[in-house]
Amino acid sequence: xxxxxxxxxxxxxxxxxxxxxxxxxxxxxxxxxxxxxxxxxxxxxxxxxxxxxxxxxxxxxxxxxxxxxxxxxxxxxxxxxxxxxxxxxxxxxxxxxxxxxxxxxxxxxxxxxxxxxxxxxxxxxxxxxxxxxxxxxxxxxxxxxxxxxxxxxxxxxxxxxxxxxxxxxxxxxxxxxxxxxxxxxxxxxxxxxxxxxxxxxxxxxxxxxxxxxxxxxxxxxxxxxxxxxxxxxxxxxxxxxxxxxxxxxxxxxxxxxxxxxxxxxxxxxxxxxxxxxxxxxxxxxxxxxxxxxxxxxxxxxxxxxxxxxxxxxxxxxxxxxxxxxxxxxxxxxxxxxxxxxxxxxxxxxxxxxxxxxxxxxxxxxxxxxxxxxxxxxxxxxxxxxxxxxxx
Length: 391
Known about the structure:
The chain has about 400 residues and is an alpha+beta fold. It contains 19 helices and 5 strands. The chain has a 5-stranded mixed beta sheet, with helices on both faces. Helix 4 packs across helix 6, helix 4 runs antiparallel to helix 7 and helix 15 packs across helix 19.
């Protein structure tokens, strides 16, 4: 396992490699050796310790989330205790089959009622019957423990299925392109388990100041560092915002046929791009007859042929403020939208691109792109280009 964790594989591939190469060594003995629960728990702790040593897991991040499937927000690590339950359940299903040959074998064996099989029968009875239900029961219990924790449940509590696109919000975990150190840091930030001053003061009960080390004004929480510090806003937040805008602008230019670089991260946006009847403006102010509060959206797309104008503005707030920020953006550019329709005689639409600081995405973002797919031929290409590259 140390060899796997010491490689340059991505986080997802390392977790899969552990499940493919390390776990089977013990899994072959399940059902033959009478493993005790405490022994398996001890091995799971050793596994987590190795992950922590190699930077793949933060010490105070949620343990149960490690074993949840990636599509549900976990990291997909195979738990030995759960694997043992599944394997012995499979064994008892096989032994208890009404097959004549198996029945003959059972009559000549004296260990058919061994402790392993008795344990398996108890587990099978507990979840009614079947290996499939056993697996589903284990996943459900793990998820319930994660969501029931006061500190670590803050991410799932923000994932309102009516408002948030859960599949897209967890897509970065499912794709697994990040390094283990990066993934573990993001997960720890979502779990509010970053070693901040507030965490040390409130959770660890250390005698120290809980205020932010940079601004000295607010409590130094994970949310404050990722999206609320006025000192970081001047450079780090601005740089993050510009990278998202650059990726979006690159996708738009590529879809419209404008000249671009091979990679989005080498793309240097120009103030104005023109291709046929479509003009793309980057970070340009719109001067109107009447004074408006917000007149500089990140990207403006003017389509003279379709007589449309699209205002795109990006924001990366704290995860809990994603819904509120979208409403703020629409309100901010409403006056500008009215002025553009009056001055340019174009139908104007506002598209706020709101992504949480740790990856929360609203359902409305997908619906917005889908709505424009039927109107503008290039919109599908923009969406496709955004999804085919990783920010």
